[in-house]
Design goal:
Blueprint lengths: L4 H24 L6 E4 L2 E3 L1 H17 L4 E4 L3 E2 L9 E9 L1 H5 L6 E8 L4 E8 L4 E6 L4 E3 L2 E2 L11 E4 L8 H12 L3 E3 L4 H9 L5 E7 L1 H14 L2 E2 L12 E6 L4 H8 L16
Parallel strand pairs: 3-5, 11-12, 11-13
Antiparallel strand pairs: 1-2, 3-4, 5-6, 6-7, 7-8, 8-9, 9-10, 13-15, 14-15
Helix pairs in contact: 1-2, 5-6
The chain binds D-MYO-inositol-1-phosphate and calcium ion.
Length: 276
């Protein structure tokens, strides 16, 4: 299937900015109506309205594309190849957003199923930054091409997300091993923003033991275009199951794999990535 990636990229960058502005507006008006989906798992009016806006805009411009979003699910579940799917998290980092912390984002990816994401856009509305990547076209931040330096595992922080309602042991094992080699971690509260930060060379890597497609795919597209390495979320051809995610600056792939050994069921260790 021939897909116009350039057109979708321009569209997604503009849409992510518009969506981020809408979410900011809700918070500024203190009109969030926070509801619980589980322990420390909230949904707000801002999440719902922002996803609605994104769905409406995609529907107007690309009526034949499928949309999978965190809040409203799958608009047209289909199987097999041959259609573009937009995978959307209107606010990734809702817990931080509700807490008044500035670390959250709008995350938009495109997948030409069953392949990996060919487009990823992450908008950080608080930092006014748009991270964008289209397969083969490189990574940009606010429209400027970025060259990412090579960084080892102790040259910076490793992002670690901890999924709610999941087993603690994989996260604790990863952290114990990271501390043992002298590394430090941060939890940015938004997996998509942490992955964008790896792509930009600000974090040396990222691990989360259990992530959904809307938290992983845009960041994965950014990392591939930055020259870094990431697990392949679509490797098992399933958009709807949650999976462990590991991503690394090209100077940290082997070291991060050592820390994640046994925690990445289903993925195989890349050959010789660090020496390339
Ligand atoms: C969450 C964030 C968080 C990650 C959780 C996700 P949400 O997404 O990405 O960083 O650790 O696993 O559920 O709920 O804020 O969209
Ligand atoms: Ca979300």
């Amino acid at each position: 299937m021939i897909v116009d990636g350039v057109e979708r990229r321009v569209f997604a960058e503009e849409l992510a900015v518009e969506a981020g502005q809408l979410a900011l507006l809700y918070r500024a008006r203190e009109d969030l109506d926070v509801r619980s989906k589980g322990l420390l798992d909230w949904v707000t009016k801002a999440d719902l309205a922002t996803e609605k806006l994104i769905r409406r805009r995609i529907g107007e411009s690309f009526p034949h594309d499928r949309i999978l979003g965190e809040e409203e699910g799958d608009d047209a579940p289909r199987t097999g190849a041959g259609h573009v799917t937009w995978v959307v998290d209107p606010i990734d980092g809702t817990t931080w957003f509700v807490s008044g912390l500035p670390s959250w984002c709008v995350s938009i990816a495109c997948v030409d199923e069953p392949g990996p994401p060919f487009l990823g856009v992450v908008r950080d509305p608080e930092g006014a930054e748009t991270f964008s990547a289209l397969g083969g076209h490189g990574l940009t931040i606010n429209g400027c091409r970025v060259a990412v330096p090579r960084r080892g595992i102790t040259d910076g922080l490793v992002g670690v997300g901890h999924p709610r309602n999941a087993r603690h042991e994989p996260t604790l094992t990863f952290l114990r091993r990271l501390f043992a080699v002298g590394g430090l971690f941060c939890n940015s509260g938004s997996a998509a923003l942490a992955l964008a930060s790896v792509a930009a060379g600000r974090l040396v890597g990222f691990f989360e033991s259990d992530l959904r497609a809307w938290g992983a795919l845009a960041g994965e597209a950014l990392i591939r275009e930055s020259g870094g390495w990431s697990t392949d979320f679509m490797g098992d051809r399933s958009l709807t199951t949650s999976k462990p995610v590991l991503a690394a600056n090209r100077g940290s792939v082997a070291a991060l794999w050592d820390l994640a050994e046994g925690l990445l069921e289903g993925w195989s260790r890349p050959d010789r990535h660090d020496s390339q």
